[in-house]
Amino acid sequence: MMDKATQLITPIKVQDNMEANKPDTATRILDVAERLFVEHGFEATSLRMITQQAEVNLAAVNYHFGSKDALFESVFMRRIGPFVAGCLSELDAAEQSGATLTAETLVMSFVRPCLALSRDPARGGALFVRLMSRTLVENHRLLREALSQQYSVFVQRYTAAFQRALPQFAADDIAWRMHFAFTVMFNAFAGNDVLKIFGRSQVVNARDPELIVKHLVPFVVAGLSAPI
After folding, report:
1. Would the CA dihedral through 63, 67, 68, 70 be positive or negative?
2. Topology classification of domain 22-66
3. Is residue 12 a contact partner of residue 108, using CB atoms and an 8 Å limit?
4. What is the pLDDT of residues 52-99, one digit of tens each?
5. Which whole-number Å values give the CA distances from 213 to 59, 145, 205, in the listed order?
6. Is the CB of residue 132 less than 8 Å from the CB of residue 125?
7. Is residue 143's pLDDT more than 80?
8. Pick the CATH number of 69-225 from 3.30.70.260, 1.10.357.10, 3.40.220.10, 3.30.450.40
9. Mean pLDDT in the chain?
């Protein structure tokens, strides 16, 4: 039998262990906000929804992030850095391989990190891939400005690479083709159910990354390479 001191201490230790296993407040807010932003979009997600599901008060959100816009940017930025690094690493490998750059090589250098991210719950998994895609499609102004400032190297590197891979097109034509290609890719990974309009639901699954890639890559490559 436990003595009285042990009986008093044991519940405290159990409680301490439970608290230690909980995500810290900021992480809990980020995780909940990430899920709600995917489910409802930025505009439809309120701070009240986030605080209720994260089981925190509004003061905690204001303390850690300051505003809804800043929270949204924090949700995004904690994941996007490794993703961009993965894309640039793929691009480095393609450029250093000695093989001729092609539109398909460049598309896959973007798609492979999307797939890797979608399979890794520790980095947000498919949830963040959908958030990233939905955010860029929905044109969140403040976030796009932050991204353009922090990830200009990504844009510059891919623009230069596509110009080398498609030398038959003028720079303006390349810019248009990249605009359409990345819009299509982001939209596809956003998990929009609009695809079900055009196919049987048991065949078309807009939230299956592997299935998306199978049909997406040939379509995007054909569009990038099509004559004017």
Report:
1. negative
2. Arc Repressor Mutant, subunit A (1.10.10)
3. no
4. 999 999 999 999 999 998 998 898 888 888 888 899 999 999 999 989
5. 42, 28, 12
6. no
7. no
8. 1.10.357.10
9. 80
* CB 132, CB 59: distance < 8 Å: no
Domain ranges of the chain: 22-66, 69-225
Rounded distance, CA 190 to CA 27, Å? 23
104 has a pLDDT exceeding 90: yes
For residue 115, how many other CB atoms are within 10 A of its CB?
17
Per CATH, 22-66 and 69-225 having the same topology is answered: no
At residue 221, what is the residue type? V
The pLDDT of residue 29: 96
**Four-CA torsion 120, 122, 128, 130, nearest 10 degrees:** 30
Burial class (CB in 10 A: 0-12, 13-18, 19+), 122: exposed
Structure pTM?
Answer: 0.70
> Does the pLDDT value for residue 17 go beyond 60?
no
- Give the Cα-Cα-Cα angle 108, 86, 72 (nearest 5 degrees): 110
| pLDDT score of 62 | 94
41's torsion region: left (phi>0), alpha (psi -120 to 50) or beta? left
Amino acid occupying residue 111: V
Amino acid found at 160:
A
Residue that is written with structure tokens 């099509």 in the block: 226
Mean pLDDT in residue range 216-222: 94
pLDDT score, position 33:
93
CA separation for the pair 56, 29 (Å, rounded): 8
